Amino acid sequence: MSAFTEANRKAFNDLSASYNSKPWQHKLSQQVSDALQQRRDWLGVRWTKADDGGRDVRLLDYACGTGAITKALGPYVTTIRGIDISESMVEKYNEAAQSSGLKPEQGSAVVGDLLSEQVSPQLSGPDYQLFDIAVIGLGFHHFEDPALAIKRLTERLKPETGVLVIIDFLPFSDELAREREQRQQTPSADFPDMSHTIKHSGFTREQMQKLYEDGGLEDFGWHVLPDLAVMELKSGTKERTIFIAKGRRSPTSWGKLRNWFGSMQAQMAGQLSLEPDGRYGS
Q: What pLDDT digit, counting tens, does each position of 17-53 carry?
């Protein structure tokens, strides 16, 4: 674990005691939840339904925190796996999952880092592969290497159908500089200083689209939420704009060949059904 990742781990462990304890935190979580639920069809996932006959729909909640994404999308999937580098966040996630009636095999979180040089063998088994959807909720700007994050998460998706969703902020570099200065002058006792754990001051659409395409994803989609995210900190009110980005994992080489062969068969069948005068036969 790098020094920067370790700083994040410690900061979120310290934050866990007060996480989601303030009205603005609840409002922000609800804002993200509503945005995802309202755009379920747009996300492009085949969600579970009552008449699906037991089809498994798998969600990977990465940098899961206490489970805001899980709460938002849990009703539409059958299996949920959370991963976070913070032991305390994972503990609170599992407490919430159990209190909501979820069995561990249905929904649970573990401590882990998919971006480390050596990924834990615990995360290499089938239980952490072939997800229908993976989501990072407001954690992407904390990642040391966003390109690696997208690549590693894309590898965990089902080829051709698996979707990666990232919810984060548009650029806020000027605000971040002011926030760091304010934190040094007026430390906040009720909300720990998190500015040193932020690696990237937001992302543009162009940056995200390139990251997605370079990471092996296609069908890029983008939404900017109309309402600002408002954070009421002791150093002052912070406002940021939230975006949702999505992309679907590209087919494997075999999948591309299969798709090409299928299209050729369809084309040949259409040609063979034509009458000599160009009309389709009966």
A: 888 889 999 999 999 999 999 999 999 999 987 666 6
Sign of CA dihedral 116, 118, 122, 127: positive
Helix orientation angle between 146-154 and 205-214, rounded to the nearest 10 degrees? 50
- For the domain 3-250, what is the CATH code? 3.40.50.150
8 Å CB contact between 1 and 38: no
Amino acid at 205: R
| CA 213 from centre of chain | 16
pLDDT at residue 100 is higher than 50: yes
Contact 45, 132 (CB under 8 A): yes
pLDDT tens profile 149-200: 999 999 999 999 999 999 999 999 766 555 555 555 554 444 456 778 899 9
Q: Please list the alpha-helical segments (H only) found in 113-172.
A: 146-154
Q: Tell me the C-alpha distance between 194 and 25, whole Å.
A: 15
* Nearest CA-CA partner of 12 in 65, 61, 60: 65
pLDDT in tens, 202-240: 999 999 999 999 999 999 999 999 999 999 877 788 999
Cα–Cα distance for residue pair 156/159, rounded to 1 Å: 9
- pLDDT bin (cut points 50, 70, 90) of residue 105 is very high
Contacts of 135 (CB under 8 A, 6+ apart): 36, 59, 60, 61, 62, 69, 73, 164, 165, 166, 167
CA gap 78, 45 in Å, rounded: 13
Question: Domain boundaries in the chain?
Answer: 3-250, 255-282
- At residue 140's C-alpha, the angle toward residues 222 and 35, to 5°, is 45
CB 203, CB 216: distance < 8 Å: no
- How far apart are alpha carbons 161 and 133 in whole angstroms? 9
